[in-house]
Amino acid sequence: METITDVELKRAGFYWREIDGVRALICAPLEDVGFTNGFSTRLGGVSPMPQAALNLAGFNEDAAENILENRRRFLKLFGGEWTLGGCWQMHGTDVRVIREAAKARLAEDARGDTIYCDAVVSDAEQVLAGVKTADCVPILIGDPETSSFAAVHAGWRGTHAGIVLYALERLTREFNAQPESCRIAIGPAAAACCYEVGSEVIDGFKERFPGAVDLFMPTREGHARIDLLKANRDQLLAAGVAAERIHTAPLCTMSRADLFFSYRREKQVHGKVGRLMAVIGRMGEEGKGKG
Ligand SMILES: [Zn+2]
To answer: Has residue 179 got a pLDDT over 60?
Structure first.
């Protein structure tokens, strides 16, 4: 198993936060400009996936009381009072806008309270925009100039469709956020060391993106490993985000099944796979007093 030192993490712009055995990866530069943020791990929860797992979604695969307890533990890492705002993810390009905390909700639960999309944008205080992943790429965007932010879910389909650009464009349209002032954290995901895809995916990317050959490392006939992190980073760079403002976590969910849920690693082994969550928001002055 690869190990990564805190020094390497810090160099990439990240550090671990842990309370009562619940651990999350925090992007320091995003936090430094006012955005509470975190990428969950599987550590410190109550779900039997296979044990003591911090599963944060998937009511068809885990008991609601487990998921809700896990979410409560996860939110303790961020202090204060937050409302989670999310969606039922579709591997598409729709974006949800949350304008006030009172209207935020996770929008996918046992009651069928559902909004379908793959990115959540907001500028409301005490809202944590969140996306759920287990190998797909979680991307958090914060614009300190307008205090607006976004959480994005980008698997290979979403990456191919450019979901991160839809989110960025929506931040601009709704809140006048400019790509040049955004700071971005790309979280733990199935990385180029592990994530093999077939010719359907390879051909799709090569048709759409001129430089796509750089995203693939050939393996066996008709297959290659894909670098979805680079694919999203390239899209952000092309949109005008400065390279030094994009922070990529040097952690692969497939390599580090001890820390993260990995759909590709675990589906065959355990049958059901937990979900990680990546969240971003800003507390505002009012919320700080309640923490
Ligand atoms: Zn890997």
So the answer is: yes
* Ligand 1 centroid distance, CA of 3 (Å): 12
- Tell me, yes or no, whether 171 lies in a domain: yes
Region 29-35 average pLDDT: 98
Compute the distance from residue 278 Cα to the ligand 1 centre, in Å.
Answer: 19
Distance 192 CA to ligand 1 centre (A): 6
How many angstroms does the Cα of residue 193 sit away from the middle of ligand 1? 4
Give domain status of residue 212, yes or no: no
Q: Is residue 183 domain-resident?
A: yes
227 CA distance to ligand 1 middle (Å): 10
Residue 291 lies in a domain: no
- Structural domain that includes position 56: 6-190+242-286
CA–centroid distance, 124 to ligand 1, in Å, is: 36
Give the position of tokens 């068809």.
60
State residue 2's pLDDT score. 55
Distance in Å, CA 89 to ligand 1 centroid:
24
Q: How many domains does the chain have?
A: 1
Ligand 1 centre to CA of 194 (Å) is 4
Going from the Cα of 256 to the center of ligand 1, the distance in angstroms, rounded, reads 7
* Non-local CB neighbours of 34 within 8 Å, separated by 6+ positions: 142, 144, 147, 282
pTM (predicted TM-score): 0.96
* Residues 13 and 39 sit within 8 Å (Cβ to Cβ): no
The least confident of 100-104, 121-125, 129-133 is: 100-104
